[in-house]
Design goal:
alpha/beta, binds ligand DLZ, 2,3-Dihydroxybiphenyl 1,2-Dioxygenase, domain 1, 8 helices, 5-stranded mixed β-sheet, 2 domains, 4-stranded parallel β-sheet
Length: about 300
């Protein structure tokens, strides 16, 4: 049920927010979905992992906002030079501690900002501490574009799958304008439409939705095999992730169950898979860039 954690910090001005944003991006935070309205502005910075730590006994010797880093000396140097470049009117650094060894086998330094925000940066002396053991996709669809190919055959079901996919995309931050829906006659036509869309390279992922009912389709096996093969081939040959949301069911009742009645909504699940794969692809591609080789080694 938990999706993530957010710490909200107030900064003095829009200029301060922009300047801090530049520092955070330089330190390696991923930019998240911000907001802006007549009342103010928010900028989000995402970390790969987070945790909420409860402490009893001794009072924590660190600020409540702790950022774990690698190469802490480089981070320290970046913060220091950023602080030196700030105008006094900005929400700059009021105190930058030295980097010191903590009682928990880590090196830590803290930065106090004029707004009252304090951030502790730390690096474990144990090289295996918190080391990621897997690349995992984020479930944010913000800023990403998706195409949905949906079959009209068995529309009573596929419309529900489509609704599930749109729900997942919207709830994950995908803008309406970044979703393109293509309706095709039946499941048989899904692969060719998916392929055309994938080849445009306009989409981070394609979501395919359809329903094949064994009871009503004598050549069910033949259609299913071709649809699965075609979607897989389009994914492999274009390099664009394709989520497989083509149901194969014995009966209409079973299909309804999988389209939101009793067994979840497979359209929703396919969209979540597409979002995750779009993110994984982005991360894996970034890791292959030579300039990132040292950082990720
Ligand atoms: C023809 C057909 C049949 C019998 N059953 C299904 C089905 O269960 N699900 C589906 O999506 N499409 C079916 N179709 C239509 C074919 O997929 C295709 O659209 C037509 O044969 C036209 O090429």
């Amino acid at each position: 049920m938990i999706k993530g954690m957010t710490t909200v910090a107030h900064v003095a001005s829009e200029e301060a927010l922009t300047q801090l944003g530049e520092l955070f991006r330089a330190l390696g935070f991923e930019t998240g979905k911000g907001w802006s309205d007549e009342g103010g502005k928010g900028a989000a910075f995402l970390a790969p992992v987070g945790n909420l730590e409860l402490v009893t006994g001794r009072t924590p010797a660190v600020p409540s906002l702790l950022v774990e880093v690698t190469q802490i000396d480089a981070v320290y140097a970046a913060v220091k030079s950023w602080a030196a470049a700030q105008k006094p009117s900005n929400d700059g650094v009021t105190k930058l501690s030295e980097t010191a060894l903590s009682h928990w086998n880590s090196r830590v330094f803290t930065v106090d900002f004029a707004s009252g925000l304090t951030i502790g940066f730390w690096e474990s002396e144990n090289v295996l501490h918190n080391r990621p053991i897997a690349v995992e996709g984020d479930l944010s669809a913000a800023g990403k574009r998706f195409a949905i190919v949906v079959a009209r055959w068995n529309a009573v079901i596929t419309d529900r799958l489509l609704h599930g996919s749109l729900d997942a995309l919207h709830r994950s931050g995908c803008a309406r304008a970044n979703i393109e829906i293509v309706r095709v006659p039946g499941a048989w036509e899904i692969p060719s439409a998916a392929r055309i869309l994938a080849e445009t390279k306009r989409f981070h992922a394609i979501i395919t939705l359809g329903v094949l009912l064994r009871g009503e389709t004598a050549h069910y096996e033949a259609i299913y095999t071709e649809v699965a093969r075609g979607i897989g081939q389009s994914q492999q040959e274009t390099g664009v992730p394709h989520a497989f949301g083509v149901l194969t069911c014995e009966t209409l009742e079973q299909a309804l169950d999988r389209a939101g009645l009793k067994a979840g909504n497979k359209g929703f699940e396919a969209a979540i898979a597409a979002i995750e794969m779009a993110s994984i692809q982005e991360k894996l591609t970034a890791r292959q860039q030579p300039e990132n080789a040292e950082v990720n080694a």
